[in-house]
């Protein structure tokens, strides 16, 4: 595979760094609407995903429903949706502040900030989240900004700094998420696995990560600790490769589950910030 051959890796690394966007503007693709995607827009979104594992689409027609999200996803080979705990029956979740019910127990359904993570870091390997669409229906009055970073860039930065960081983060017991236990018993068992793994079919880098301090158990090993510290510094580096943006109504992020976070936000009633989110077990065909 290209990551294990030093010549192939050097070529891949150089190409990746050469094509990685220098600013958010390079990620944005204007489209008429999710339901009427033309070849030009499809090609532009795929091109951005090849460069940065993500694209921001911006719809001229901002009227979008959940079915349109799924139809849009299918253009990019995203069919196997993750029907997780808080999603609707069609698998699409509505991220908005929930003041009661099961969703109110989870930070994504609050107005609080979300620390750096990849989606589904608590999923088993068999249900790895490879792609995510996050579509903004209504933005907040203030806040709700997103920062994002391509896991392949994280991989390169870590390997440049110390190849042993990669080995530590590939360890099958690197990161453990304790069981999720509710009032009526265990909702999800403890999940243990690596940060970096690679798809068997094409060697694509997959990253599983959460910066949460609580409810994460890291393998006690000096190299793992040093790798985590290096990554933490990379994520807060204002002059580093992190891309920051605030999705506007009609805009969305389609990505191969890149690292991301969210700042806290404030709604102005009766309008509530609302994002549709769909997670897939497929990677974007690019
Ligand atoms: Fe997320």
Structure, briefly:
It contains 6 helices and 19 strands.
What would you note in describing this structure?
- The chain is an alpha+beta fold and 286 residues long.
- The protein has a single domain, classed as Clavaminate synthase-like (Double-stranded beta-helix, 4-Layer Sandwich), CATH 3.60.130.
- The protein is built from six helices and 19 strands.
- Helix 4 (151-161) crosses helix 5 and helix 5 packs across helix 6 (222-236).
- The longest helix is centred in the C-terminal third of the chain and has 15 residues, at 222-236.
- The protein is globular and about 50 Å long.
- It starts with 5 loop residues before the first helix and ends in a 6-residue tail after the last strand.
- The structure holds fe (ii) ion.
- Fe (ii) ion is lined by residues 117, 119, 260.
- Fe (ii) ion binds at residues 117, 119, 260.
Descriptors:
binds fe (ii) ion; 6-stranded mixed sheet; 286 residues; alpha+beta
Q: What's the CATH architecture name?
A: 4-Layer Sandwich
**Relevant CATH superfamily:** Clavaminate synthase-like
Strand share of the residues?
25-35%
Roughly how many Å is the radius of gyration?
Answer: 19 Å
**Termini separation:** 19 Å
- In round numbers, the mean pLDDT is 93
Strand order of the largest sheet: 1-2-16-5-19-3
Helical segment count: 6
- For the record, the count of structural domains works out to 1
**CATH topology, which one?**
Double-stranded beta-helix
Quickly give the structural class: alpha+beta
Instruction: Estimate the helix proportion, in percent.
Output: 10-25%
Largest sheet: 6 strands, mixed
Bound molecules: fe (ii) ion
Provide the CATH top-level class. Alpha Beta
Order of helices and strands: HEHEHEEEEEHHEEEEEEEHEEEEE
| Shape type | globular
Contiguous runs where pLDDT drops below 50 for at least 5 residues: none
User: Total strand count, please?
Assistant: 19
């Amino acid at each position: 595979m290209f990551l294990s051959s030093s010549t192939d890796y050097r070529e891949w690394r150089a190409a990746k760094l050469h094509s990685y966007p220098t600013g958010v503007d390079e990620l944005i693709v204007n489209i008429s609407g999710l339901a009427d995607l033309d070849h030009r827009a499809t090609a532009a979104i795929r091109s951005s995903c090849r460069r940065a594992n993500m694209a921001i689409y911006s719809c001229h027609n901002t009227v979008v429903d959940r079915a349109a999200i799924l139809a849009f996803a299918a253009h990019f080979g995203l069919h196997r949706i993750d029907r997780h705990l808080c999603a609707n029956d069609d698998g699409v979740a509505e991220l908005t502040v929930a003041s009661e019910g099961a969703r109110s127990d989870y930070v994504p359904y609050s107005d609080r900030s979300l620390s750096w993570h990849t989606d589904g870091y608590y999923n088993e390997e068999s249900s790895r989240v490879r792609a995510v669409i996050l579509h903004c229906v209504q933005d907040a009055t203030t806040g709700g900004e997103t920062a994002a970073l391509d896991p392949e860039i994280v991989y390169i930065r870590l390997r440049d700094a110390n190849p042993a960081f990669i080995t530590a983060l590939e360890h099958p017991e690197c990161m453990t998420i304790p069981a999720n236990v509710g009032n009526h018993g265990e909702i999800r068992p403890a999940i243990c696995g690596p940060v970096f793994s690679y798809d068997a079919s094409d060697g694509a880098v997959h990253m599983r990560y959460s910066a949460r301090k609580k409810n994460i158990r890291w393998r006690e090993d000096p190299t793992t600790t040093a790798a985590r510290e290096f990554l933490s510094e990379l994520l807060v580096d204002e002059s580093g490769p992190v891309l920051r943006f605030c999705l506007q109504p009609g805009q969305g992020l389609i990505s191969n589950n890149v690292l991301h976070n969210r700042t806290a936000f404030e709604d102005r009633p009766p309008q509530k910030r609302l994002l549709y989110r769909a997670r897939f077990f497929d990677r974007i065909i690019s």
